[in-house]
Design brief:
The protein is of the alpha/beta class. The chain has a single domain, classed as EAL domain (TIM Barrel), CATH 3.20.20. It is 43% helix and 19% strand. It is built from 11 helices and 8 strands.
């Protein structure tokens, strides 16, 4: 794809956003929505992995993510009450970009009419973190301004525990690779029990991703996982149920 075509997608917002609910596993109520991006329908960039890889390859990742995030925040104002959180995926490259704090400043949120506390910034692509110290400084400022921090894909690699210690998130999102068929896998149950205990000591919450079977849901609830998302609970949708 040429840079001009990618520029057009960014400038004309040639992408769509879908909402996947996150449920409180105790009361079965929606506590938030994760916003997911889809590229131009019918193209290879409809797959968000392809879209963001293309943007990164052409040096347009910040511009694309900035546009997606801004659109998501405006939809939050339009569709969701203040108590329903929005989880927005952000890569470390975008978080540490010099313009990020300026674009999404206190003034921006005051003009938009929503509070930073309504937003959970979900850090994706941990492998691209080049400096935890730089990220820590930025996250300290974001927390001070009221944002919540979520760490994505925990359990999908050996760097997970280090990332938890360095990022100190409000939410730890447990990768679906650990959730899949956990109800028949004692080893996975033991690992998740460890994460539940860790989250309790750190004062944060677990969100189990990719729940597809009733047995998985029942096991997660028994083990004390606070929140969950997945096709069993709710597929990505064009509009949220809350209005």
């Amino acid at each position: 794809m040429s840079t001009s075509m990618l520029d057009e997608i960014i400038e004309r917002e040639g992408f769509s956003l879908v909402w996947q609910p996150i449920f409180d596993l105790k009361d079965k109520q929606i506590m938030g929505y994760e916003i997911l991006t889809r590229g131009p329908r019918g193209s290879k960039l409809e797959n968000p992995i392809n879209l963001f890889q293309e943007a990164k390859q052409h040096g347009k990742l910040f511009e694309l993510e900035k546009t997606v995030i801004s659109k998501a925040f405006h939809l939050k104002k339009k569709h969701l009450p203040a108590h329903i959180k929005m989880f927005v995926n952000v890569t470390p490259e975008t978080l540490t970009h010099p313009l990020f704090p300026r674009v999404f400043s206190n003034k921006y949120f005051a003009e938009l009419g929503i509070q930073q506390s309504e937003i959970s910034i979900e850090i994706t692509e941990r492998s691209s973190i080049t400096s935890y110290e730089n990220l820590r400084i930025l996250l300290t400022d974001l927390r001070r301004n009221g944002f919540y921090i979520a760490l994505d894909d925990t359990g999908s690699g050996f760097s997970s525990l280090e990332a938890i210690a360095r990022v100190q998130p409000h939410y730890i999102k447990v990768d679906m690779s650990l959730i899949r068929r956990i109800h028949v896998d004692p080893i996975k149950q033991a690992v998740l029990e460890m994460l539940v205990g860790l989250s309790q000591r750190l004062g944060c919450y677990l969100i189990a991703e990719g729940i597809e079977y009733r047995g998985e849901l029942d096991t997660l609830t028994t083990l004390g996982v606070s929140y969950g998302q997945g096709y069993l609970l709710g597929k990505p949708q064009s509009q949220p149920k809350q209005s």
